[in-house]
Fold this sequence. Notes:
Layout: H1 7-68, H2 72-94
Helix pairs in contact: 1-2
Amino acid sequence: xxxxxxxxxxxxxxxxxxxxxxxxxxxxxxxxxxxxxxxxxxxxxxxxxxxxxxxxxxxxxxxxxxxxxxxxxxxxxxxxxxxxxxxxxxxxxxxxxxxxxxxxxxxxx
Length: 109
């Protein structure tokens, strides 16, 4: 059994294959962009969650110290340490300037 194709049919077949490849590549690019956007938003939410958790734990420690310690010097020292750590965490959280985009081979600069 032999097939006889005209040049028009061959060109149409090549055009269909080319269109399928282009659609497949654009879909993978769109999926890659969506994945990068999801990672970026997850980083922000994760950072906010860590800040809230750290703040809540420091408030709990400070409440315990105020409730159960009678020595003013010890009270001042024990309240200053969590405040310094909290200041560091909040400052770091508010000064995030890079979301960590990665370059792949072939990306434009």
